[in-house]
Amino acid sequence: MGKVKPVGVRKSIATRWLIHGLGFAISIIIIAIVALSFSIKTYIYNSIESALRGRSDEMISNLSLRAEKEAELSNTLRDYVRNFTDKNELEVTAFSVYGDAIASTSGMSNISYEGFKDMEMAMYDPDNFGNWEGTNEYGEKIMAITRIVRDRNDKALGAVRYVTSLEKADRMISQTIGLFISIGAVITVFLVFSGIYFIRSIITPVKQISESARIISSGNFNVRLNKKTDDEIGYLVDTVNDMAVELGNTEKLKNEFISSVSHELRTPLTSIRGWAETLASAQVDEETFKKGLRVISKESERLSGLVEELLDFSRLQSGRLVMNMVKTDILAELDEVVFAFTDRARAENVKLIYDEPDILPYVKADANRIRQVLVNLLDNAFKYNKEGGEIKVAAYSEKGMVYIKVSDSGIGIREKDLPNIKKKFYKVNTMIKGSGIGLAVSDEIINIHGGSLTVESIYGTGTTVTVTLPGM
Ligand code: ADP
Description:
Elements (H helix, E strand, L loop, with lengths): L12 H51 L6 H13 L7 E7 L4 E4 L12 H8 L4 E7 L5 E10 L5 E10 L1 H51 L14 H49 L5 H32 L8 E3 L1 H11 L1 H6 L3 E5 L7 E3 L1 H17 L6 E9 L2 E8 L29 H11 L3 E7 L3 E9 L2
Parallel strand pairs: 7-9
Antiparallel strand pairs: 1-2, 1-5, 3-4, 4-5, 6-8, 9-10, 10-12, 11-12
Helix pairs in contact: 1-4, 4-5, 5-6, 6-10, 7-9, 9-10
The structure holds adenosine-5'-diphosphate.
């Protein structure tokens, strides 16, 4: 099948999915990675900071009793630094109150607190505590914590500074972020592939369906689609196939209808023209003249009946068939219609049996339309009857409903045709006179009255049509 780019489609489903679906999912993944990375970093830095604080708290509680005097404190701090166990992990430096380093695990004695931000912070901090993160003179990322040591009168006696490298922590953070990014990338790749697979499974059949619909719209109703899945797409495929079948049937019926209507119109017209030409010639005796006029009149009547039927049908189709619903004596209407057919029964050698009920409830109906339906049913019963056949008309009421049955002993209808005969233009035998819309119109009229029209038939034996109407 060729490629179709439907007119007016600017964004395909794939593009929309790319922008809305995938774009949204990737944004969420990126936001999640950034948020997680920040949380991890904050968590690790906070843990390091509280570990350092813990150390300084430990130190203060060890010194507190002894750290009364500045001189004594210097010695104590020196001892503390010298005996500090985690020298590999932490660099500890003790400062005198004047800012000189008095001992350091790094061994440097010329360190001054000048410029240490954590030291400045600690001096003004009510908890005697200051912290700082940054790069040292060797370009190494560090975290420093300074604790001011005070006597009981809150006089500063000195300070201890703890410094730890953040390189290991940063490496761990980078590895974790790397892991998050990898997971995010795997999820994205999975989303892309599953999305492409999913979109393809929609786009490919949709393209095929629209191509078929285009072919159908160009008048070729023989296209059929292969149903591959049992989902919404499969349902759409079924619907399009059904539509093509229905359109094909309607097209066939329409063509048959046009040819049968043309035939119906041509027969009386030929007869009228023939007689008109005959009558126009001078040598016509009176009897032939009268016969000619009778034929012309009968044939014109047939023509107007057919035109009336066609008009009714078109009004029904466009919903313009207006019903004049009034309280109607349905029994009187039925009597009249049956009576009107008695002559035809005699002429066609058909036995017309009328099982007339004593009484029938009134119905709310358009009497003319109901008569039209009854005439159509009886006309069919005659038209599709056999020589010397029988037609039975019966009526009764039950549970507030009125039933009228017209049965014939005619040719009957095959089971396969039965569901179609109420459809417009449908004729079992296109050679027999008729437009194929009588039953369609009758059915519609009875439906508008809130009733139903059912057809039962045994092929070769006869047909029974039942009209059911709600009584008043
Ligand atoms: P038509 O004008 O062709 O009779 P209808 O709509 O009245 O159109 O009927 C549709 C078709 O149903 C007919 O062409 C005929 O094949 C079938 N049909 C209707 N009534 C009968 C019947 N009583 N017996 C057999 N076939 C019938």
